[in-house]
Write a structure and sequence with these properties.
The protein is 43% helix and 17% strand. The chain is an alpha/beta fold. Strands 4-12-11-10-9-5-8 form a seven-stranded mixed sheet, sandwiched between helices. Strand 10 (262-268), helix 12 and strand 11 form a beta-alpha-beta unit. The chain binds pyridoxal-5'-phosphate.
Length: 483
């Protein structure tokens, strides 16, 4: 019908016969697109498509002449791709619950509700409704934070790296901060304690050795230029063997003897001792404050389970000083974050229901038997399609990680679907399957271990099960057709 004459004509002839922009935009199939995407976008994509085709013809990348149907298909495809958000949804089957590259903590419905309502409507972010005048945004969460940590005051910034940076800039600019050499850590490549210090204008005084630091290392390093003593929780690694570190209470005593503040960067900010939920313990801000820390910094999107933010809690006079620093304005959080943070913190008022209500904790405390049952429910739905491509699927015991540098050594027993090839020739298929799953509408991210694709089920919520099944089935179908 609409086909252009197929001929082995020279390229120039092909090009001359390409339909015009007008012809494409007035084609009946374009009419829905005009409504859906708007005239400007449809025209843009048609022009883009024609120019790509022209280029391909000139570079002899095409062996057949493009026909109208081809062109319209290409336009439809491009329109749809361009309308897909760049920030794609993911089903996290990596086995790392707090995966920094996958956005860390997922949040509970009441938190999401608070965030979307703050986004949709005006709210009293910095407005004292009683007095009818300007307020302070930190006050939205300060009381909750003080209640949950035992601190006198609190302030919130964009992330924990910002919290550490701001603290150092406000209190140790052009002065010295003493840190144990064993705690000069790097987190995820771009956060290195020594670099942050330098940028904040703080001079780093390293004391002790990588494995051992003693109280006298600190007391002997203190001089007239010392501003702070600092302890960094080495959240993502562990020094084992012949080690010694100075306990927080001892460091606080040494600092206070010389009228210096003692600060702790905790990193992962679990507000409760997680051992009550059967998880390994991680130090809490309350413990640090009780041990004598004057300031404590921690993240909100790690174990705390909320939106990306960083918190400094501690002595009122020091928090005041931090808040007066102009960089506080630079690093402040927005209303959506504060709304989410407040809603998450409220959940901590009832620790008994936390494992059911805080998504991160729900995932971390998921019993192995639950994942086992889930695996046995999934395998029959996948087996046949996988068999057709020469693959098998079975359950495998694995160890999930908490992630984001939290509880580095501890692993949580978990169950994965293990997909592998039944024969040597099919090993490449496992790799291709992994790639196809990653390219799904909701990207499915597992991990390849040796020649097996492991899909750790810890983070697969029941409502995502069918999405996973559909994506595996469609990837399998793709493996069969594209040989
Ligand atoms: C994660 C972490 C940070 C950085 O926190 P972000 O919220 O990622 O900015 C800083 N210090 C420690 C000890 C950490 O574990």
């Amino acid at each position: 019908m609409n086909k252009l004459p197929v001929a082995r004509a020279p390229v120039s002839e092909w090009l001359a016969q390409l339909p015009s922009v007008d012809k494409l935009v007035s084609h009946e199939r374009s009419q829905d697109w005009l409504v859906q995407y708007g005239r400007d976008e449809v025209l843009r994509v048609i022009r883009l498509t024609l120019s790509l085709v022209r280029q391909e013809c000139l570079e002899n990348k095409r062996s057949i002449q493009p026909d109208l149907d081809d062109l319209l298909k290409q336009v439809a495809q491009t329109l749809s791709t361009r309308a897909t958000p760049n920030l794609r949804r993911v089903i996290n089957l990596t086995g790392t619950v707090l995966h920094t590259n996958l956005g860390r903590a997922v949040m509970p419905p009441e938190v999401i509700e608070a965030m979307s309502s703050a986004a949709a409507e005006p709210c009293a972010l910095e407005y004292d409704l009683g007095e009818g005048k300007r307020g302070d945004r930190d006050e939205l969460v300060e009381e909750l934070l003080c209640e949950l940590t035992g601190a006198e005051a609190a302030t919130v910034v964009n992330n924990n790296a910002a919290a550490v940076f701001l603290l150092l800039h406000a209190l140790s600019n052009r002065k010295e901060t003493i840190v144990s050499r064993g705690e000069l850590i790097e987190i995820g490549g771009s956060f290195r304690i020594p670099d942050i210090m330098k940028r904040a204008g703080a001079k780093l005084t390293e004391v002790g050795t990588t494995n051992r630091t003693h109280p006298k290392d600190f007391s002997e390093a203190i001089n007239a230029k010392t501003a702070l003593l600092m302890k960094v929780h080495t959240s993502n690694y562990m020094v084992q063997g012949f080690t010694a570190e100075v306990p927080e209470a001892e460091l606080a005593r040494i600092a206070h003897e010389r009228q210096l503040p003692f600060v702790v960067d905790l990193g992962s900010g679990t507000l409760l001792d997680l051992s009550r939920y059967g998880l390994p313990s991680e130090p809490t801000p309350r413990q640090a404050i009780e041990a004598g820390a004057d300031l404590v910094t921690f993240s909100c999107d790690k174990l705390l389970g909320g939106p990306q933010a960083g918190i400094v809690v501690g002595r009122r006079d020091l928090i005041q000083k931090i808040k007066k620093n102009p960089l506080k304005r630079v690093l402040r959080v927005g209303k959506v974050t504060l709304a989410g943070l407040e809603a998450v913190l409220r959940l901590y008022r009832n620790p008994d229901t936390l494992p059911q209500r805080l998504s991160v904790l729900q995932l971390l405390t998921r019993p192995e038997s639950d994942m086992q049952t889930q695996a046995l429910r999934l395998i029959p739905q996948l087996q046949e399609a996988l068999t057709i491509c020469g693959l098998t699927c079975r359950t495998q015991s694995v160890k999930s990680q908490i992630g984001s540098g939290s509880l580095p050594v501890e692993r949580l027993p978990s169950v994965a679907l293990a997909i592998e090839s039944t024969n040597k020739a099919g090993e490449k298929k496992v790799v291709r399957l992994e790639r196809l799953l990653r390219a799904s509408a909701t990207a499915v991210i597992g991990r390849l271990s040796d020649k097996t694709l492991l899909l750790d089920l810890r983070c697969l919520t029941p409502e995502k099960e069918q999405v996973l099944v559909e994506h595996v089935l469609s990837a399998a179908a793709n493996l069969v057709t594209v040989r």
